[in-house]
Amino acid sequence: MKMTRRGFVGTIGLGSAAGLLSSAGLTSRHANAASYADEAVYDGGIMQLNQNESARGPGPKTMEAIRSHVTKRVGRGYAPDHVNELRSTLAEGYGVSTDNVILATGSGPLLVGATRAFCSANKPLATIDPTYTTAEQTARQMGVGIRRVPVDGSNMGVDLDGLAKAAVGAGMVYFCNPNNPTGTVHSPAAVESFVRRVQRESPNTRMLIDEAYINYAADEVMQTALPLALEFENVFITRSFSKAHGMAGLRVGYALGQKQTLDAITGAWGMGDVNMLSAIAAITAFKDKEHIEWERQENTEIRAFVVAAFNDMGFEATNSHTNHIFVNLGRPAKEFRDACLEHKILVGRDFPPFHNTHCRISMGSREEMQQAVEVFRKVLA
């Protein structure tokens, strides 16, 4: 039985539930996109709540753009159409030059390239613990030193003071905001203060600010660090179409920064070739601001429902601003993961040093999370 938007929000049991439905336009949008929002994403019969992908996939306009461009023209794709147009679209959207934009097949190559470009035997990587690990894994492969700064155990926020200290003399700082897996976010003022401090105390250190989850965070809690990237040559940001845009399978990411810095990244590692269908999808998705706002609101309501359910069971989750939550279950993540998998639900991997207490759970569709919460209640009883 399908769960309606009104019925779903009614199950949250929060005083703020009415506020989640404050926009009539979003309610209408949900009706128009119901076929995408309600479609569960499974792999081999397993509900995937482990990869922070969007259960809803691309918006209707993006899906239509992909369909309309599946023609014989895809047979002429060695110099793919729309890729330069995508770069120009992003530049125009952010008010920068195309020299300030590089494209990649997802954000992974950007993180690998940046680590290889700016870290070396005497220039370690400074990073958060726990966080997204591509930069750290690359540094380890290179034999580069890694300075890990634990998150604040009281609220799982990034210790910016500790990270600034670790940045002194480092080749690069990796700062994921909002952070994966904790979901926590830092305000524009906090980020600016952090960046200026590092640039003052360690002017040769590069700073990668990963904004993969920014579309899930409300404007009042965070904003892009792009102005800082345009002010400081050593600062750059990365973004992805894999999260709120629902295009993980199409592999499109990009970085914004000053030309010299971006050239160093592309010179250190291949970015891959964005294909023509991915490019037209990304152009359409980027311009579809209405759908992104709907996706953010949809995720906010689903996340509130799941957090409320865990609170009702006596467990606490971090104050997440992403499409995943980090829950303190008071037991090993593997134990919970194995129990959920018996019910064909896959949740997140271990995230040391919290692998014996916390588990990351990605947000699926409304129907998926209704089913998942029932399973969580069973295995945690």
Please characterize this protein's 3D structure.
The protein is globular and about 55 Å long. It folds into two domains: 5-59 and 289-380, Aspartate Aminotransferase, domain 1 (Alpha-Beta Complex), CATH 3.90.1150.10; 72-287, Type I PLP-dependent aspartate aminotransferase-like (Major domain) (Aspartate Aminotransferase, domain 2), CATH 3.40.640.10. The chain is built from 16 helices and 13 strands. By secondary structure, the chain is of the alpha/beta class. 43% of the residues lie in helices and 14% in strands. Helix 8 (134-142) links the parallel strand 4 (125-129) and strand 5 (146-150). The strands form three sheets. Strands 3-9-8-7-6-4-5 form a seven-stranded mixed sheet, sandwiched between helices. Strands 1-2-12 form a three-stranded mixed sheet. Mean pLDDT is 90; it is low at 1-41.
- Structural class comes to alpha/beta
Shape designation: globular
Strand count: 13
The average pLDDT score comes to 90
Cα-to-Cα separation, first versus last residue:
25 Å
At CATH level 2, the architecture of the largest domain is: 3-Layer(aba) Sandwich
Task: Give the SSE order as H and E letters.
Answer: HHHHEEHHEHEHEHEHEHEEHHHEEHEEH
Output the radius of gyration. Answer: 21 Å
| CATH fold-type name of the largest domain | Aspartate Aminotransferase, domain 2
Number of domains: 2
What is the CATH superfamily classification of the largest domain? Type I PLP-dependent aspartate aminotransferase-like (Major domain)
Strand fraction equals 5-15%
